[in-house]
TrEMBL record:
Main enzyme class: transferase
Family the entry assigns: Belongs to the IspD/TarI cytidylyltransferase family. IspD subfamily.
Catalytic activity: D-ribitol 5-phosphate + CTP + H(+) = CDP-L-ribitol + diphosphate; D-ribose 5-phosphate + CTP + H(+) = CDP-D-ribose + diphosphate; D-ribulose 5-phosphate + CTP + H(+) = CDP-D-ribulose + diphosphate
Name of protein: D-ribitol-5-phosphate cytidylyltransferase
Amino acid sequence: MTCRDPSPTQLMEDNHINMQSHSCDPDRPAHPGIFPTREAGKSNHQLAGSSVDFLVSVVLPAGGTGERTGLQTPKQFCSFLGRPLISYTIQAFERVSWIQSIVVVVAKENMDLMTDIVQRFQHKKVRAVPGGSTRHRSICNGVRALGDGEEERPKVVIIHDAVRPFVDEDLLYKIAMAAEEQGAAGAIRPLVSTVIATTSEGYLDHSLERAKYRASEMPQGFTYDVICQAYQKCSESDFEFGTECLHLALQYCGTNAKLIQGPPTLWKVTYKRDLAAAESIIKETLSRSACVITGGSEQAVTLADALQKAVGALDMKLDVIPDLMGENAGYLLKEWNFIQVSVNRSCLSEVEAVLTDLQAANRAVLHPLVVIWVHLSGSDELSVSGRGVEPATIMDLASAAKFRNILLYGIQLRQTKDAERWERSVLRLAEITSALIRERSPALVGQLLQA
Ligand SMILES: Nc1ccn([C@@H]2O[C@H](COP(=O)(O)OP(=O)(O)OP(=O)(O)O)[C@@H](O)[C@H]2O)c(=O)n1
Ligand SMILES: O=C(CO)[C@H](O)[C@H](O)COP(=O)(O)O
């Protein structure tokens, strides 16, 4: 185990992950815990026509060192778009209205870091408690803490590894309901490889019939009484070497867990490559849509419509609106990406107004927002740079916005009556726009690109 005592900022920053392209899994949740947080609720919450009328709390074990990643920073504190993995997992639970509280179990030396994360990302339902030397010891500490607090004891406890950030409400609901009814429930996945037993000399002893077995994943749910009893009765050997809470419930409480097949996105971040895959999923989820603001001008609307068609082919959805007033102000709360089209205007006042609105809406706490200023200049203008915006002006504006976690980029294109040229420009605009939104590169912030 690596010994470390880094500062919170070091932990958040010393693990920049080099992104390459990763294949996208079609079976992903709509949003990996990136919705705005709802207020904590207690009971009888509606979900898809059903209700949870008992108290549910969550334990997120996050006390490990992540040795298998080979990194200094424990994987739960590795940063994605400036935010640690643990915060994504917390948010996946926090946004579920029928979950009353979340206990995050962290190693003693990371308690300050965890407090810092809770404050910085404005988590509301969370409390941190110190972990133990093994995963079972950490989970046990978390479960005990649920009985210590001032809040009412939950009927059901959901346990979920802090390093599995992509869990959706539908599965949590199924696990909670089955746990309440059955005493224990857990998510499973089909095995991807056959499991074999080896002899002590390293030869094949026997192999298991793959179709009969499943991989046990998380989340798992238990009634509070079952999980407490399981940890009270289990042996030192279970605490030291055990890897399966469902097994403890069966062995020490006679409770047969109900098993529920979950989506492939339940996978656990274990190796370094899993961190890159997680970042890719997060970025992909944030770049599915954008909102184009036209200012109502006819040329801007024509360009926005053409852009809409072109990015549609690149698998991105665009909504076109004249401004962010009235009902359209709702976009400030739901969208992560904004494209402001300015026609024949060599000043940045329109995009400045968008930045001001976004700042007022306080949307960039969890993720960086992308704002792209598209400057459509007249065909008679000899040189865009000659009469257009000074590169330094947009760079200054972008630098100020970056402090507020808003990434501002600029793209210029020129109107032309040559249909073929125009089509090529729009296509380039679509490609640049989509690349900027997908990559969210801090290095390109403030650049004025040409389409
Ligand atoms: N003493 C421990 C060990 C693990 N965990 C948590 O249990 C989850 C799943 O464990 P694993 O993937 O094995 O994490 P690590 O133990 O950190 O990884 P490694 O085995 O590679 O060191 C992680 O969220 C981890 O932080 C914990 O709370 N306390
Ligand atoms: O899947 C699980 C439980 O069924 C756990 O996530 C898994 O056992 C964790 O094990 P390890 O800490 O060794 O990776």
